[in-house]
Amino acid sequence: MLPRLNRLKKGKDFKLIITQGKVIKENFLFFKKIENDLGYSRIGFIVSQKISKKAVVRNKIKRRLREIIRLKLPIIKPGYDFVFFAKKGIENKKFPELKKTVENLIRKARLINVRKNNELIPKH
Q: What is the pLDDT of residues 62-104, one digit of tens each?
């Protein structure tokens, strides 16, 4: 489960990111990011009914995305709020494909902590 500290919960925070955030797109997923003044990053997920009318399917997508982000959290730069938006077609994707897409999005957005010799910085 994604730590409570790293969850985006308030509607006003979602609205701010949606209206002012920078967009990064990849196949069936995109996200908007905005800097925050906190020492940590917060993440939110939006899977609309356009994806599936069934809540079970939408929740499954969100659970998968949360787990991928939870595993990547140690290498994500602190100080950002971002919201992931699912697009049509995501409901048919397998976990490894979702994971690769999320990694590509994070890399595109330059949200990965990297040392001088390109080693990932472990965060404990």
A: 999 999 999 999 888 899 999 999 999 999 999 999 999 999 9
Tell me if 21 is assigned to some domain.
yes
- CATH number for the domain spanning 65: value is 3.30.230.10
Do the domain assignments include residue 123?
no
Predicted local distance difference test score (pLDDT) of residue 120: 53
**Tokens found for residue 48:** 């609309």
What contacts 19, CB < 8 A, 6 or more positions away?
none
The radius of gyration of the chain's CA atoms, rounded to the nearest angstrom, is 14
Which residues are bridge partners to 7 per DSSP?
43
Q: Is residue 17 part of a domain?
A: yes
Residue-number span of the structural domain to which 75 is assigned: 4-108
pTM of the shown model: 0.85
Q: What is the spatial distance between Cα 49 and Cα 46, in angstroms, rounded to a whole number?
A: 10
User: Cβ of 55: how many Cβ atoms within 10 Å?
Assistant: 10
For all residues of the chain together, what is the average pLDDT?
88
Q: What is the Cα–Cα distance from 112 to 76, expressed in whole angstroms?
A: 5
Residue 121 lies in a domain: no
